[in-house]
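Hi D.,

Good news: the full-assembly prediction came through. Inputs first.
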Amino acid sequence: MATQQRRERERAQRETLIVNAAREMAEADGWPAVTIRRLAERIEYSQPVLYSHFAGRGAIVDAVALQGIVELTGVFSAARTAAAPGGELAAVAQAYLDFANANPAVFEAIFTLAEGLPFGADAPEALKAAFAEIYAVFAPLAGDRDPDAFTEVGWAAIHGLASLGRDGRLRPDLLEQRLPILLDLFTKD
Amino acid sequence: MATQQRRERERAQRETLIVNAAREMAEADGWPAVTIRRLAERIEYSQPVLYSHFAGRGAIVDAVALQGIVELTGVFSAARTAAAPGGELAAVAQAYLDFANANPAVFEAIFTLAEGLPFGADAPEALKAAFAEIYAVFAPLAGDRDPDAFTEVGWAAIHGLASLGRDGRLRPDLLEQRLPILLDLFTKD
DNA sequence: TCGGATGTCTAGCGGTGCTAGAATTGTGAT
DNA sequence: ATCACAATTCTAGCACCGCTAGACATCCGA
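Then the structure:
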């Protein structure tokens, strides 16, 4: 009946409510503050309801990560298509750093917390799409090297800059010098 | 009296016992398995004893991280001095990846878990020494760029490779291609 | 209207980091 | 050798965590 559909709709709505709440709480107070109890109180349901949507706390983190990946893909795509010819790499790389800076908790969820997201051949479509965006800007510069390996190296370099920078591991006063150096290395030859 | 010194000696001994136990447990079963209770049982003391040595669980993780940094510095130094002329960067980079691979829990402690270790100007001596080793291999290649910024970019690139690789984020079949590409980028010009 | 399925909640288990206060141990002076 | 004191260690417990069994309420189709 139609009620069935309404129920499913409401369920889906509540699921995104949970994911959004988790994300906001994580950005506001860090992931350790995102507990099932607090999350339940926030969405005004009891704890077991959360377990009817997700297998456990980890699955909620994974969901936030997945949402972030989808978002990230959109950011990449927008940056790449809006960039001047030849400036695609710079635009995407800058977008990567900006995203990591603006959404540190989501970034953390994607790259260090998520454990249920397969990153290999059977990765979710959103993840492959995100990698494809990175591939699109790096592969043309690969020259005679393997374009996949070259892209991975490029991704790793940007990612290292983002993650070390996010944790305060790099000198703030050199912030603006780093990305140009990196871009220079990848485009020079 | 002399007893005082003996006591301090025994205390220091017990402290390294704790750190070593934490490290071994983390490498064996992951950091979440390193609980105060298990740690206490392992060293055959009650939990409060741990708190007479460390401010809390986090401080123990920090201690493991610091020990790892000291070790890492030694590895770098050995790799660099043993390398053939011109091969220093390759040797240190490989040592970095090898260390991350051989001691994933320590690596995690250093770069994602440790929160009490200042990484800036007032970083511990061991950390500055480790960075100095990296600086020694990158700065000569900086050309007309700022050697500090150049070193940070180089470090970030290797670090990205190490951390993404450790978490299974990179294709295993491209493992051996990645480092040569990276070295090529940093030495080509 | 009513029986059954669906959904939600209350209450609780075993575990966590951490700590107050009791108990024990060792020390130095008498 | 004895004793008072200080340092050390332990027992017991708090508040919180993720998670779940079973009671309760609600809604639907016949």
